[in-house]
Structure formats: C-alpha cells, structure tokens
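User: Here's a chain of 454 residues. Predict its fold as tokens.
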Amino acid sequence: MRQRSGQLRWRGILILLGGLLVMITACGGDEAPVPAEPTQELAVVVFSTEEPTPTPSEPTSSPTPAPTVGFGAQGDDASGAVGVQAAANPAPDNSPINRPADVNPLTGLKVDDPAVLRRRPLMVRIGNDPGARPQVALNEADIVYEEIVEWWVTRFTAIYLSQDPETIAPIRSARLINLDLGSQYQGALANSGGSDGVRWEISQSDIVNLDEFFVPRPFFYRPNQDWQTRLAFDATAARDYLQSEDLEGDVKLRGFEFSQSPDFSTFPVEAVGDAAEVSIPYPQQTNATHWDYDASQGAYLRFISGGPMLTFGGDQVAATNVIIYFAEHLPTDIVEDSNGATSIRIIVNGLGTAWLLRDGKILKGNWETDGRDTPNFIFNDGRAMPLKPGNTWVQVIPTDAEIEIDGVIHTRLDSANPTAGEADDEAEPAAVPTATSTPIGSRSAGQPTARPTP
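Assistant: Prediction complete.
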C-alpha cells in the first residue's frame, strides 16, 4: 500500500511538469526558436615585418679595387688611387659582341659546329712547378691564365671551349682566383680539391665545381707517371657528365674584339711600341718566363727557366696573344699546407692595367670587368684593344712588377714608351727576381723549406 502511494505521487509530479512545459511552448506562438549564437571563426593575423638589414660579412670573391690604369694615367685622386680621364672609363659593356654564330668568342676563329660555342668553358687547373712538366694539351686551350700561388711558383687555369682533349695533365688544386674567373667565363672548374678555406668559398658560389673528390668520373691516372704528373682530366667525359646532370647550360659569352691585321697607326701613339722579346718576372729558380716573337708563325714562343717550354708531345708552347694582366695580390689567412703557406687573393674584377702583345707589338691599356663576363681590354680613350684571332695566354702579375721588353724595363705607370730602336743600348740588364722560401702571407715567422703543393 505504501509502495503504490509513492508511485502515484511521482506520477503526479511528472504530469505537473508536463503541463508546465506545454504552457511555456504555447506562449511562444508561431515564432521560431532563437538559435544559439554561433562560434566565431578564428581570425588569421598576418604580421608585417620589414626586410632585415644584412650584416656585412667577409667577401667570398674578389672585391672591386679602386681604378688603376696603365699607360696614359691622368694623376691621383684624393684617395690616392690613380685616376682615369672620363673618356677612358666607360661603363663595362657586357653585351655579346655582334659576331657570326660560328666564331669562337674566345679565339675569334671559326668552328665547324656553332653548338660547341654555347657550352660551358672547361676551366682546368694545371700545375707548373718543375716536377709537373711537361704538361699535356696546353696548346689546345683557347685561353690560359697563369698566376702566382703561395710558394712563389705559378699555376695555370687552362680554358677549353672549342676543343675537348681526352687527356689534360697534370691536374692540381683550385685557388681563390678561380672564384672570379669561373664567374667571368661561366665555366665549369676542374680541379683536384683545395684547402678547406678555398673549398668553402667555392661552395658558397654558383660555380659548377668538378672537384675530383666529389666528381671522379672525368679524372684518371696516367700510366707510368709519378705522383706529380699522373692525375689527368678527360674533357670528353666531363662534357658527358655535365650533360647527364643538366649542368651544361646555354652560355653566351661576351668574348673579345678581334682583328687579323689592324692599322696600328690608328691607335693612341703613346700606347703602341715594339715587343719582340718579353720577360715576365716570375721567379728565376722555378718559373722565369720569356716570350719570343716568331714572325714565321705569327705567334710568341714560350721559354721557361732558360729553355724552351715543351708540351708532352714535344711541341713548344706558343701563343698568338700574350696579355700582361696587372692585379693586386692580397694576403689571406687561408692555410694551404702544413708548412703554414697561405693563399693569395688576386683582384681580377674591377679596373686595372693590361698590356697586349701581338704581332711583335705591345698595346698598353686597361682591363675592365664587373665580374659577370669576360674582361674588356681597352685603350685609355675607351677603344677596344683588338686581339689577333688565335689562342691567348694571360700573365697575371702584381701591380709593382717590372716587365723587360726588348731589353728595356717597363712598369705599370711608365711615362715613356720607347720602342726597340729608341732603347738605350747601354742600359743595364733587368734585375732577375729570385725565388724565396717564405710563402706570401705565411703565418709562420720562420723560413720553411720551399716546396710546391701538389
């Protein structure tokens, strides 16, 4: 009885609650119930940040030097740099020269297949210490640059565009100059490694670097050769590698001005002289260099350390053009070997003095490049110094070097330009520089025994 009474009580409560609910709904009429306020979407906030100001860092390539010029300098400016008259300092013209598609921009000679001229030049590092000779395929290069390395010996960067020798030797390591030359020629650098500092700077550039230790395919050892001469480079294999890795590129080099038989009387009279015999002041003990003009070949023949410089095949090294390229040489703290020798940073971008030897003559003027294309070689009035069609050697030397031409010493800023006929017959012979066992810029205060780095 008690249980039933409780059930009735709960039933009554439920009926009461149901009635109240009906009354509340009826009061709403026909109006739709108001929905709950929706959750707002998350707002996306974009913060505007100014571009940060870059922090200056150490340069990874040669800086542009203050202007320096050769014959015909106009005096010094307030900074002490040698100035150039306005007409002699035009803006660099890096547009491709209007030439036929089948003419090599580096030699001025025609090729059978114009497509080869749109490839990357192969820039191969070749040794020139006494133990590296005789070299292979130097005469096949379109251009050869020669520069001083840290032990006061020289090394070559041979540039191949029109020909692809299957053997180029002996291969050596890269140096800082290759950063700038690689950009000027849009080339692929072939080398046998380098010091950590040089390798790091190359890695920060956009140069196509065919380092033997990372790209071994084009390199091989020559049989019956010692450690100084055995490493070689196959340009044909390198071309295949560049093509397979999509690194070949469509290169359009500005190149140089060429003229087979210019009228020398139209050039600035003060900038033209005779030059049948020319000595480059590389060290006497290792790399003393001499060029003799051979009219029968229309080229200069190279002698080194008192004798003819021969290739591995027995031919004498020859050049249609020889360019003397005065450039500032700066010390660095990049150590090249265990003896403390340090790299030299050679300034080959900007504006400097250049002398062109061709046809037994010397033309004195300037080099100029913004570092993105091949140098312009110009007289002080801005006109081009025309190269003779053929191969070219570029002798990179310090700005204070003294060049012996037909028995007369010439410096970068000579105020006179005697020809061979005007030279003093009783002039004292040129002082011959001697090799030093102290590397340029070495950290070591001692006198380590000199040896060229492999």
